[in-house]
Amino acid sequence: MTAYLNGRFLPLSEARVSPLDRGFLYADGAYEVIPVYSRHPFRVDEHLRRLQCSLDGIRLANPHDGARWKAIVQRLIAESAHEDQAVYIQITRGADDKRDPCFPPGVAPTVFSFTAPLVAPTAGQRETGVAAITVEDIRWGRCDLKTVSLLPNVLARQLAADAGCAEAIMFRGGLLTEGSSSNVFAVRDGVILTPPQDRLILPGVTSTLVLELAAARRAPFEVRPVGEEEVREADELWLTSSAKEVLAVTTLDGRPVGKGERAGKPGPVTRRMHEWFRAYRDEVMRRGRG
Ligand code: PDD
Question: Does residue 235 line the site of ligand 1, with CB under 6 A?
């Protein structure tokens, strides 16, 4: 598998960084994950724009312009054996010769990228939906930046895995934020609800597209603070992310989502949204641009 590290393409197994790298010592870095379908990166401009926002937010200069990033991504895609992939990009503040929290002057960033097969939901998960737990959101105040400081996300996700669940849905002070690695949508009385893209959640490339699709198809939606009870009493819940696309949550904390005979099954609004997403994605891919 090929990787890109600090200007060179090399086998991933040969890529090495210093133990003094600030990504390792301080989680001082930002990252992106770009989905690739049939060897075409999807929404690459949106991902590169968010990468720029994350780097600006942590005061780290972007080592490459958009054209160079796209060339790196294309070469990694071309050298992979897989049609559908997830390209990972990470930039850290580099490796100094000592451990000091302040930005090291004159130190080059560490720039790393590789691609792996896209891990999409299974056919079974698509059909039945997935189970999620809820946890308190204990992250910092800049969750809009996609930084490699992911320990609370890791701990939340492991709690979900321990419970046999696919995702942990987080609340802060009784309000929905997001999943450990996804955005969250609820449906109540036919209206799609999702929290605003403030500093407490990541502005998902997928969730932004989902809102665009809802607006274009005139599906009723509200972007506003969503209370914990609204989530627990929702008719439908779904997650979005670059890997999951639109994925129904059908069990929350062991209880079926929704009421009546639809309880515990992916709902009609979720299914329709995923169809819209797929139709849009396939159309964009057919035209050969992400
Ligand atoms: N994570 N919220 C969080 C905390 C995330 O980590 C992610 C994605 C999302 C969804 O964003 P997008 O739709 O742009 O993928 C929301 C990626 C996939 C990851 O960390 O692997």
Answer: no
246-256 mean pLDDT: 98
Domain ranges of the chain: 2-117, 123-285
- Residues 2 and 51: their CA atoms lie apart, in Å, by 22
Per-residue pLDDT tens over the stretch 86-132: 999 999 999 999 999 999 999 999 999 999 999 999 999 999 999 99
Interatomic CA distance for residues 66 and 158, integer angstroms: 35
> 35 alpha carbon to ligand 1 midpoint, in Å?
11
- State how far the Cα of 11 lies from the Cα of 140, in Å rounded to an integer: 35
Asked if residue 194 has its Cβ within 6 Å of ligand 1, the reply is no
CATH number of 2-117: 3.30.470.10
| Ligand 1 centroid from CA 98, angstroms | 32
Please name the CATH architecture into which domain 123-285 falls: Alpha-Beta Barrel (3.20)
Cβ–ligand 1 contact at 241 (below 6 Å): yes
